[in-house]
Amino acid sequence: MTRKLFADTAFLIGLMSDNDSYNLESKNIFEYLRSSHLISDITDLYISDHIIIEVIHQLIRKRIPMRQIKEKYENLNQFHVFHIEAGHIDEAINTKLTPFCHNQSRERPMGIVDALSLVAMDYENIPYIISFDGHFDKVPLIVRIKDIDSINHSILRR
Q1: From CA 137, how far away is CA 158, in angstroms rounded?
Q2: Residues linked to residue 110 through DSSP beta bridges, in sequence order
Q3: pTM of the full predicted structure?
Q4: Is residue 79 within 8 Å of residue 112, measured between CB atoms?
């Protein structure tokens, strides 16, 4: 009964850093996904290589010791990693960012890494993203997992 789930940066940072504001929520989501048999372990999750870059960058900013960062990097490489190529960046700009920004105010609610995550999700046929970023709620056909209630409502009831 495992599901394809894409993991966003803030969720992963929450899992990897005890002093992160999303630490408790990330751990609760992860444990609930395991206990519900939606994943068997952390490496069942999908990410892109750009998510890895963001996670490492944030861990460095949090002054996590380099030895631990290297271990976390090795763990991240065990996930299902979608490798971003130049064509994917073009696709993210043209099919994700441009239409989304034209239909919204002047405010740009999504960055390029989030747009690339959506492209990766399209290629891998993944409808679910574990994220604390509310802008994913505005993307058609994407279901955001933000807490245990969203898992119960959006995944387990399907």
Answers
A1: 18
A2: none
A3: 0.90
A4: no
